[in-house]
Design goal:
Order of helices and strands: HEHHEHEHEHEHEEEHHHEEHEEH
Shape: globular
CATH superfamily of the largest domain: Type I PLP-dependent aspartate aminotransferase-like (Major domain)
Distance between the termini: 58 Å
Number of domains: 2
Number of strands: 12
Radius of gyration: 21 Å
Mean pLDDT: 96
CATH class of the largest domain: Alpha Beta
Bound molecules: pyridoxal-5'-phosphate
Largest sheet: 7 strands, mixed
C-alpha cells in the first residue's frame, strides 16, 4: 500500500472546529439572529440576482459593497476590506501580518478561531489570561505584549463566549501598548452592535487598529458568509494583495449591498434582542446558575447544582440546543445560550427550570 501524504505537523496535530449541528426545535447555540432578514430584502436580492452576468467574474474590488459599508461608518471604500465572513477577514489578516517567525496575542477565554487561525497560518500563539469576571487584566496584557512582541494583538469585544465588553479606557490602553511595540491591534466586533460602545471611535489613518464586523449576527445573514474590516487604507491594500482574486462572489456582494438598504430594520431588531437579553437574564437569575453580564446576543452561565454537561444533555433531549463550553479551558461547567425569540427563550427557560428545580 502506498503511504499517505501527511499535512505539516502543526495541522496533523490540530483539532478542527467543532460546533455540532444537531436537528432540534430550538437552536440557541451559534449566536445567529433568531429571525430572517425582512421579506423586502429577500425579494430585492432575488431580483438583483436575476441580472447577474454569470459568465463573468464578479467585481474583484467589490467596489459598490465597500463604498456602501464605508458610508455606514463615514469612511471611504479604501478603508474597508470585505471577505467571506469575518473568519476570512481574520485569516487574511493573519496571512498578511502573521506567519512563521511572528506571534499573535490573545487573552483567554476568547473566540476559539483567533488561536485556531493563528496556528493554521503558522503564526505562534502568545496566550494571556483574563482576570476576574473574564475582564481584561491590563498588567497581563502589558506582560504578554512586552515579552512576546506580537505582530497582531486580538481583542474581542463583546467577547465570545463570555459576553464581556472591554471598556473604552482599556481599549485605549491596549492600543497605546500595541503602538509602542510596533504591532497591529484587531478588535473583533462580531457582536459590536449589541454593545454600548465600539473601538471604531479609536480608528485613525496613522493608528495601527482594525475593527472586524460580520453580517452573520446583527444582519441576520449567516447563510451568506460576509464580514468586513475597517482600518487604515495602508492595511486594506496589504490585505487585498493576499486574499484570493474574486474571492467574494457576485451574490454575496449583492446581498451585502442590499442589506444596507434595511438599516432601520436591523437597528430595531438589535434593540429588541438587547431588550430580550435583559428579560432572559432576569428570568435566569431565579435559577441556581452563575451568570456573566453580557453585551452580546448570548449569555454565558454555569449551573451550580448539576454538572454543565449533564444540563446540556438534558436540554438537548428537550430539543433545545445551547453551546456546551463545559469542557473548554477556563470555562469548567459553563454553557452559552443565544438570545432567541421570546417563544424560543421561554422553551429554554422552562426546560432549564424543569432540569434544575
Ligand atoms: C467573535 C466572533 N468573531 C467572528 C465570528 C465569525 O463570524 P463570521 O465568519 O460568520 O462572520 C464569530 C462567529 O461566531 C464570532 O463569534
Amino acid at each position: 500500500m502506498s503511504s499517505r501524504p501527511v499535512p505539516r505537523e502543526s495541522i496533523a496535530l490540530m483539532d478542527g472546529y467543532h460546533s455540532p449541528q444537531i436537528d432540534v426545535e430550538v437552536r440557541l447555540n451559534t449566536n445567529e439572529s433568531p429571525e430572517p432578514p425582512p421579506r423586502a430584502f429577500a425579494a430585492a436580492v432575488a431580483d438583483a440576482i436575476g441580472d447577474v452576468a454569470w459568465h463573468r467574474y464578479p467585481d474583484r474590488a467589490a467596489t459598490e459593497l465597500r463604498t456602501r459599508i464605508g458610508a455606514l461608518h463615514d469612511l471611504g471604500p479604501e478603508q474597508v476590506f470585505a471577505a467571506n465572513g469575518s473568519n476570512e477577514v481574520l485569516q487574511t489578516l493573519l496571512l498578511t501580518y502573521g506567519g512563521p517567525g511572528r506571534a499573535a496575542a490573545m487573552f483567554e477565554p476568547t473566540y476559539a478561531l483567533h488561536s485556531h487561525l493563528s496556528r493554521i497560518t503558522g503564526t505562534s500563539v502568545a496566550e494571556g489570561e483574563r482576570g476576574p469576571g473574564f475582564a481584561l487584566d491590563l498588567g497581563e496584557v502589558e506582560r504578554v505584549l512586552r515579552t512576546e512582541q506580537p505582530a497582531i494583538t486580538f481583542l474581542c469585544s463583546p467577547n465570545n463566549p463570555t459576553g464581556v465588553v472591554d471598556s473604552p479606557d482599556d481599549l485605549r490602553t491596549v492600543l497605546d501598548l500595541v503602538e509602542e511595540i510596533g504591532g497591529l491591534l484587531c478588535v473583533d466586533e462580531a457582536y459590536g452592535q449589541f454593545a454600548s460602545h465600539s473601538a471604531l471611535d479609536l480608528l485613525g489613518d496613522d493608528t495601527p487598529l482594525v475593527v472586524s464586523r460580520t453580517y452573520s449576527k446583527t444582519w441576520a445573514m449567516a447563510a451568506a458568509r460576509l464580514g468586513y474590516l475597517i482600518g487604515p487604507a495602508w492595511v486594506v491594500s496589504e490585505l487585498e494583495k493576499v486574499v484570493l482574486p474574486y474571492h467574494l462572489d457576485a451574490m454575496t456582494q449583492i446581498a451585502g449591498t442590499i442589506a444596507l438598504d434595511h438599516l432601520d430594520a436591523m437597528n430595531s431588531r438589535v434593540a429588541a434582542l438587547v431588550e430580550e437579553r435583559g428579560r432572559l437574564v432576569d428570568r435566569m437569575a431565579d435559577l441556581p446558575l452563575e451568570i456573566w453580564p453580557s453585551g452580546a446576543n448570548f449569555v454565558l452561565f454555569r449551573p451550580t447544582t448539576i454538572e454543565g454537561r449533564e444540563v446540556w444533555q438534558q436540554l438537548t433531549e428537550r430539543s433545545v440546543l445551547v453551546r456546551d463550553c463545559s469542557s473548554w479551558p477556563r470555562l469548567d461547567g459553563c454553557l452559552r445560550v443565544t438570545v432567541g425569540t421570546p417563544a424560543e427563550d421561554d422553551r429554554f427557560l422552562n426546560a432549564l427550570r424543569e432540569i434544575l428545580v
